[in-house]
Amino acid sequence: MLTFAFLRVFRAPAVNVVILAAGQGKRMHSDVPKVLHRLAGRTLLAHVLATARSLAPRRIVVVYGHGGEQVRSAIGDDDLRWVRQEPQLGTGHALQHALPELDRSAPTLVLYGDVPLTRRTTLASLRDAAGDGVALLTVELDDPTGYGRIVRRGEQVVRIVEQKDASAGERAIREVNTGLMVLPTGRLAGWLARLGNENAQSEYYLTDVVAAAVADGVPVRAVQPPAAWETLGVNSKAQLAALERIYQRGIAEQLLEAGVTLADPARIDVRGTLACGRDVAIDVNCVFEGAVELGDRVNIGASCVLRDVRIAAGTRVEPFCHIDDAEIGRNCRIGPYARIRPATRLAEDVHIGNFVEVKASEIGAGSKANHLAYVGDSSVGRNVNVGAGTITCNYDGANKHRTVIEDDVFIGSDTQLVAPVRVGRGATLGAGTTLVNDAPEGQLTMSRAKQMSVPGWKRPVKRK
Ligand code: UD1
Ligand code: CA
User: Fold this and answer.
1) Ligand 1 neighbourhood includes 23 CB (under 6 angstroms)
2) Residue 60 Cα, ligand 1 centroid: separation in angstroms?
3) Distance of CA 206 from the midpoint of ligand 1 (Å)
4) Which residues are marked as active site?
5) Average pLDDT over residues 118-144
6) Confidence class of residue 305 from pLDDT cuts 50, 70 and 90?
7) Are 184 and 158 a contacting pair, CB within 8 Å?
């Protein structure tokens, strides 16, 4: 497996990647730079970087703009070369800035930081189609408004004309430039140096290198992606939401394909990775974040949020649970309405019921906390029964302390365990106990005001 991955990387044809990310993104109406907006929990730029890296490129150059220091510090990976473009005078101008960072012996693939869903295979075929020439990724749109149009003479691509510079006849062309292209790096310096900005936007258009290539007799090929959504960019929140749904639909289809039962493939969100065993079932409106693993026959009820969780075979999570950074054993029953917080480990056959919160605790096999309880910073043994309303008082206002509850303990309802405190094996705590000292093994321990009754007592009546 490793060897195979290594060989694939090793054999990948050399390529540079330039990611254009200097544009402003005004239509997002946000203080967050556009490429830092998130799709499926990761920034747009992180999606583009992941795909770029899968091509094992010689260099990855990110062109960023004014205010982009935020982008740089948010991403901060050390395999990247950052180039600042200020002011932003167009896509050709952006590439001029990137040029000194490129390996001239390898072609250059241009990506956009705001086009997150292009597949690796599509980019690999674009690279392969280029050979020593130029390859453009193009799509046919019913409404091509706003895009650069691909102008052909016969079959041959001859140039790209931007919407604002196009004649009425050219505007009727439905084949558009997605902006993603592969260029011969050695030729690029000459072509970029010749770019002018005598156009409707007074910009240096990268798209003008196509006419320059044709003039130099360099072949220009156009390649279409399997799906047009691979080339969609994000310019607004509406487009971001639309791409999120496309992405999630793809994940849902992969899960279904792998045999996972989804109550509704349109109502699941995976913002990370979700690995499932056999016969896993997931009800509607669940959100999975980070790395989540569900073992065989795990069942997740409606409206659960699971982040960085591993759940072993046969466990059932009832609706409305929130589970964060936890490991859950086999055949457990969680929820409904349970909250499991970081650093929690449940062994097998544990029951955590409604309105129970567990934090930084290990709970042994067969133990139960079925109703309204807080178990924090605790080690709970096997076959322990935690009664309704039980609370570990783990915080004294300054420090956290641990509670240890040994095997076969029975804790009566409405008990407070004031940590640090230990309950010995087989002990019983009477309902309502406030436990401040350790409870010995096998005994009944309780703290309770003595019950009394007042004979002849009369309930007050309202004065007339
Ligand atoms: C560009 C293409 C157009 C194509 C469209 C696809 C040009 C001249 N036009 O147009 O043919 O149909 O993309 O969406 O290339 N950027 C910079 N620096 C700049 C300008 C832009 O880094 O000075 C980056 C932007 O952040 C963005 C990308 O380049 O990621 C494209 O810029 P954008 O302004 O969206 O290009 P369009 O005018 O839409
Ligand atoms: Ca655009």
Assistant:
1) yes
2) 18
3) 9
4) 371
5) 97
6) very high
7) no
Angle CA(209)–CA(213)–CA(216) in degrees, nearest 5?
140
- 50-75 pLDDT per residue, tens: 999 999 999 999 999 977 889 999 99
Is the separation of the CB atoms in 44 and 34 below 8 Å?
Answer: yes
Per-residue confidence (pLDDT) for residue 9, from 0 to 100: 52
Q: Which atom of ligand 1 is nearest to the CA of 160?
A: 11
The bound ligand whose nearest atom lies closest to the alpha carbon of 25 is 1
Is 210's C-beta closer than 6 angstroms to any atom of ligand 1?
no
Give, for ligand 1, the residue of 91, 93, 149 to mutate: max count of ligand atoms closer than 8 Å to Cβ: 91
% residues pLDDT > 70 (the chain): 98
pLDDT surpassing 60 at residue 203:
yes
DSSP E strands: which ranges in 133-245?
A: 134-140, 149-153, 156-161, 175-183, 220-223
The Cα–Cα gap between 15 and 9 comes to 12
Distance between Cα 156 and ligand 1 center (Å): 23
The pair of three-digit structure tokens given for residue 80, joined into one six-digit string:
């990247």
Q: How far is the CA of 240 from the centre of ligand 2 (A)?
A: 13
Mean pLDDT, rounded, for 396-417: 97
Question: pLDDT averaged over the chain?
Answer: 96
Kindly report the protein residue whose alpha carbon is nearest to atom 20 of ligand 1: 90
Pairing relation of β-strands 391-393 and 378-380? Answer: unpaired
- Tell me, what's the pLDDT at 35? 95
Place of tokens 């062994």: 347
Q: What is the pLDDT of residues 246-258, one digit of tens each?
A: 999 999 999 999 9
Domains and CATH numbers, the chain: 16-231 (3.90.550.10), 249-445 (2.160.10.10)
The verdict on the CB of residue 52 being under 6 Å from ligand 1 is no
Note the ligand closest to the C-alpha atom of 148: 1
Where does the pLDDT of residue 8 fall: very low under 50, low under 70, confident under 90, or very high at 90 and above? low
In Å, how far are 148, 224, 387 from 247, measured between CA atoms?
Answer: 26, 20, 44
User: Is the beta carbon of 85 within 6 A of some atom in ligand 1?
Assistant: yes
Sign of the alpha-carbon dihedral angle for 76, 78, 80, 82? positive
